[in-house]
Design a protein that fits this description.
single chain; mainly alpha; 3-stranded mixed β-sheet; 49% helix
């Protein structure tokens, strides 16, 4: 299947992305994940969280930006919090989600869309988040560091907003 075909076949794309992530983890191995976690210590961001701030990190290839995800893991664990909120991106990985995204791009009211809102483990409603990939590297590094530190993990709450908002100027209003 060519790149052009995969762009229109969301099921194939999901499988491709998830396989690529598994391959990245296998390539890094435990030693590579530990090295990424060590690189993440450079940032010292726990005070940002204890001060009421947030830590943002990309969700691209783990070899390129895994150390940034690792910095977020360390910040969360070093903050002393009992509960950590990780917010990912909910990509339009189904035809239903893409159709909603297109309708909004063409002027439809996002709040009228059935899929508009936040999804995640423990929430009622849609479960598109189950095939989402935006927090997978964070989760892998989280689990690796919890095991490495031999600690009881704080509660990790994962949420995936599907805003469907083309006009980002309305994001905070």
């Amino acid at each position: 299947m060519g790149d052009q075909d995969m762009a229109h076949d969301r099921t194939a794309f999901k499988k491709y992305i998830h396989q690529m992530i598994q391959d990245e983890w296998r390539e890094e191995g435990e030693k590579g994940l530990h090295q990424l976690l060590e690189r993440g210590r450079e940032f010292q961001l726990a005070d940002v969280l204890t001060g009421g701030g947030a830590v943002l990190f990309p969700h691209a290839a783990i070899a390129r930006c895994g150390h940034q995800s690792a910095a977020a893991v360390h910040a969360a664990l070093d903050s002393g919090s009992d509960r950590v909120l990780a917010v990912g991106v909910l990509h339009a990985l189904s035809d239903e989600m893409e159709a909603a995204r297109v309708r909004v791009a063409q002027g439809s009211d996002p709040s009228k869309e059935e899929l508009w809102g936040i999804q995640g483990p423990g929430l009622q409603g849609h479960a598109h988040w189950e095939s989402e990939f935006s927090l997978l590297h964070f989760q892998k590094l989280w689990e690796t560091e919890i095991k490495r530190r031999k600690i009881k993990a704080p509660e990790l709450i994962m949420r995936y907003p599907f805003w469907l908002e083309e006009n980002r100027s309305n994001f905070l209003t």
